[in-house]
């Protein structure tokens, strides 16, 4: 059956799941739009529940699953990116526990405290995946990892990442138990150049929100570092700062 109307019950449920984090959490699912993103989700073992497909746009293949076909006109209305690639998938959400992560000796993790903007989180996930960061931890989260904007801006990179949510206290305990070197990033006169620090061993670099930076909880917990800059501006966008840091970690590990 070809679905044509926004009033169809399956489409009503899909639009609720697309727009409301609370509904997704209650249903235990997340939503993936776009061919590349769905391919990555499937590649990394996520279990699909159903797909909404526009046959005139989507040209890929799918595993055995419940498939609903929609018109191109309807797909333009339900998809965030309009006609892009013609596929939206609903997947079962698997909970991830930080205690299950067993870091290697040269493990590098990025920690974001209370990150608010889905676009920033997605961009940072993309950088973490590109530069070989072993895990990303969000403490006291204010946005959902599986917010459709996070998935879109990460281009599905989160599916291949070790990603966790935890409190500040739980995260600090994890870092201590696993002997991480902790580096904080906030404005201070005594911050050291990050390029002068050894990031080849177990390292955790923490970033706060763009609005207020790291909370006082972290300010005495590690060594404070900065990214050297020569311009007149004194700070960077959060996702840019995280990307430069991720690259610096990889650069040091590639040194002979």
Describe this structure in words.
This protein is of the alpha/beta class and 256 residues long. Helices cover 32% and strands 21% of the residues. The protein has helices spanning 9-19, 21-27, 35-43, 72-78, 118-130, 148-154, 168-177, 238-254, and strands at 2-3, 29-33, 48-53, 66-70, 87-92, 108-113, 135-139, 163-166, 181-184, 192-193, 203-207, 223-226. Strand 7, helix 6 (148-154) and strand 8 form a beta-alpha-beta unit. Helix 5 runs parallel beside helix 6. The N and C termini lie far apart (60 Å).
Key words describing this protein structure:
256 residues; alpha/beta; seven-stranded parallel sheet; 8 helices; 12 strands; 32% helix; elongated
């Amino acid at each position: 059956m070809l679905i044509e109307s926004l009033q169809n019950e399956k489409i009503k449920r899909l639009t609720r799941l697309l727009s409301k984090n609370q509904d997704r959490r209650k249903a235990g699912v997340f939503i993936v739009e776009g061919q590349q993103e769905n391919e990555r989700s499937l590649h990394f073992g996520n279990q699909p529940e159903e797909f909404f497909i526009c046959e005139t746009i989507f040209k890929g293949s799918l595993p055995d699953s419940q498939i609903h076909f929609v018109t191109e006109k309807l797909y333009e209305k339900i998809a965030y990116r309009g006609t892009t690639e013609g596929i939206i998938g609903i997947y079962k959400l698997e909970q991830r526990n930080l205690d299950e992560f067993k870091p290697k000796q040269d493990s590098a993790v990025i920690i974001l405290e209370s990150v608010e903007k889905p676009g920033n989180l997605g961009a940072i996930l993309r950088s973490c995946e590109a530069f070989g960061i072993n895990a990303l931890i969000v403490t006291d989260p204010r946005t959902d990892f599986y917010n459709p904007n996070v998935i879109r801006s990460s281009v599905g990179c989160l599916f291949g990442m070790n990603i966790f949510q935890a409190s500040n206290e739980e995260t600090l305990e994890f870092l201590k138990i696993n002997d991480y070197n902790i580096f904080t990033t906030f404005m201070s006169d005594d911050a050291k150049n990050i390029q002068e620090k050894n990031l080849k061993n177990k390292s955790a670099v923490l970033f706060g929100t763009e609005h207020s930076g790291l909370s006082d909880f972290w300010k005495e917990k590690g060594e404070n570092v900065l990214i050297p800059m020569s311009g007149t501006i004194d700070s960077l966008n959060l996702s840019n700062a995280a990307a430069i840091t991720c690259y610096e970690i990889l650069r040091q590990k590639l040194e002979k």
